[in-house]
Write a structure and sequence with these properties.
The protein has 100 residues and is α/β, with parallel strands linked by helices. It contains four helices and three strands. It is elongated, with a radius of gyration of 15 Å. It starts with 6 loop residues before the first strand and ends with a helix.
Length: 100
């Protein structure tokens, strides 16, 4: 994590580790509820597709889908846009700190 500029992750342990060491996080969240499972940092962006069945908190889709729609329907272009924006914010913040 010490050499990373950002962590793109699901709702996993590394998401919490990154938040703990102030590494910017972009978290792809499906069945879980971010208010319940985190990431617990203001330096995270949550990307999710809201569906009627959410949050179900299930490990496997209760509707029987092999790939849960809550994850499959997260738009890749949206994720890329969020990552680029988050990296730009981090670079600007670093630049301000260095010039202060």
């Amino acid at each position: 994590f010490s050499r990373a500029h950002l962590l793109l992750t699901g709702d996993t342990g590394p998401m919490h580790l990154a938040a703990a060491v102030d590494l910017p996080v972009v978290a792809l969240i499906g069945a879980t509820a971010p208010s319940r499972t985190g990431p617990y940092t203001s330096d995270a962006v949550i990307v999710r597709q809201t569906l009627d069945c959410m949050p179900c908190l299930a490990k496997r889709c209760r509707l029987g889908h092999a790939v849960p729609p809550c994850m499959e329907q997260i738009d890749v272009d949206r994720v890329v846009t969020v990552i680029h924006a988050r990296l730009a914010e981090s670079a600007a913040s670093l630049s301000r700190r260095r010039s202060a």
